Amino acid sequence: MDKVKGLNSYHRVAIKSHLRSLQRRMYRITEHDETLGKFGDYQEILNNIVKYSNEYFKYTKADRSKEEWLYMIPTYSMYATIGFISGMRNDDIEKIVDLEKEEEEVVSSTLNIVGHLTDVLQEHNERIEYNRMRDPVEPKD
User: Fold this and answer.
1) Is 118 a domain residue?
2) In total, how many domains does the chain have?
3) Of 29, 14, 79, whose CA–CA distance to 49 is shortest?
């Protein structure tokens, strides 16, 4: 998977942890499927989400859409994971794995990381404001 670009180290660590959690969950689910390559397909989806987020990061450099970008990976990965789980639904897999519970866990973990990232963003913005107040820019004559 590509390196995750983040607002700061807290953001990067939280995103990586969230993605690893989703990967572990999906590995457990896909190991029960006889179709080869399901987990690899899921990995490719997550990698595309990370690539898209990294490209969007360049757009946020001008301090635009930072909030949208901050939540991009958790939101997109949640929808992708739920969609992937839905695509795997069949009688055989539902005898082994409670897919409804898995979907609920994905939503719950996403809500948790979004809450954490909200705190990260607030601290980041407070740090920027503090630095602006501490080192005001002198007007040029």
Assistant:
1) yes
2) 1
3) 79
Range of 117's domain? 9-134
Q: Which two tokens stand for residue 127?
A: 């740090």
Q: What is the pTM of this model?
A: 0.82
More confident residue, 109 or 94: 109
Residue 139 lies in a domain: no
Can you tell me the distance from the alpha carbon of 70 to that of 98, in angstroms, rounded to the nearest whole number? 31
18 CB-contact burial (10 Å; exposed 0-12 / middle 13-18 / buried 19+): buried
pLDDT tens readout for residues 17-65: 999 999 999 998 888 766 656 888 999 999 999 999 998 887 776 666 7
Answer yes or no: is 125 within a domain. yes
d(CA 57, CA 105): 28
